[in-house]
Amino acid sequence: MRFYLFTLRSIRYTIPSKYDLSKTLVKPFNPDEVKTFKTPKYGGITLSLLSMFVLASMIVVWNKIGEQEENRINKSIKIVCDEAVAIPVKQCAEQFEREMKIKVSVHSKSVWDQNKSRAEEEVYDLDLSVGKPSSEGLALNQIPCAFRSIIFATRKDFEPNLTELVQVFQNNLNYSTVPISAKDGRLLKNSLEKAGKWEKVLKKRKKTYPSSSAAALALASGNDLDGAFMWDFSARKFDLKIHRVNELRRATETLLARTYHSEGNRLAPMQFARFLAAPTKGQFYFAESGFIGVNGDAWAEKPSLYVYGANQIKAFILDEFVRFEKSCLISIEPHFLDQKNIGLSLNLIAQSKAKRALPDLVISLPASSVTQMPDQYQLLSGTPPINNTQISLYLLKSTRFPVSSKKFHDFLCLNQKNKK
Length: 420
Description:
There is one protein chain. By secondary structure, the chain is of the alpha/beta class. It has 14 helices and 14 strands. Strands 1, 2, 3, 4, 5, 6, 7, 8 and 9 form a 9-stranded mixed beta sheet that branches. Strands 11-10-12-14-13 form a 5-stranded mixed beta sheet. Strand 10 (304-310), helix 12 and strand 11 (331-337) form a beta-alpha-beta unit. Helix 2 (86-100) packs antiparallel against helix 11 (282-288).
């Protein structure tokens, strides 16, 4: 084996002509491009102090929120309600407690009546009872929550639709009634007496049951009865066919939530009353129990009405706004403009895509002096003069707060009546 030693000088290597050795292959050093280390603008002490400040601020805010939540949880309201609506009211109270952190104690009127001595000592914040709406003198502290009516019910396989009481007699139906000692029995008697049919109904009835629920159960489970007079919600519970005969069209009662004006605890009871009437809150539970719902306000802890007013009445209507807000716990956001521009502005908004910007109420001088109002509004009749000036009050038909808006009208009527 032979070894050959080669030196670099002895090696010849020809570089191809395509490589240009005149150009430098290594980038020259440029000291301006060198990034040197710089001291941080904020040192560790500064950052530590800043962190401590942020942490302290968060603790203060957290404690404040905790105090507010604790105050809300410590709040409580006591409610007495009609036994017929105890189930949906208690269900609604549970949801209200979860959302508002306000404890609600619900007492049924059946228990309430059995212990009158205790009831007289108890002070309730809210009374939920079924009856006829009160006069305008009590309208400001009551909110309608549901309706119930007396109807004639049959099983679903009964084909004819009965619209007149005479059809019940013509079909020779075996039916039942409820004693007049019960609310449904008294309402049935009063309605049929006005129609001149009560004696005939008594003469042809087959049975009497102590309540609408008992009658509905008997009708649904047996063949002894062909029909029965009862509450509509009892018929729905047992999946019975409802017949609304003309003689009973006035046999309707309203569930009213009446608040008591105790200065120390006014807001929470009113909030629960609005919660009961709100379409997305309490109305769900009333519908589940078979009650007919109401056109209540959209849920808000405190409703706020957007109101257009004429500049010509601004001086004295502002005082009415202040009194209304204090009395009914409803906020008003007023916007005033010249009388001649009210109708024009509203028509422009109504024709645009911003229909949600339409005010809930419009207060102006009499209709003859204002431009034609858009179809979205209705004139509320019976609006009294304010400060010896006749005004017109318009309600937005699609308002989110129909109850609160009409309550302002009731407030004006009651307030002016008290001044006389």
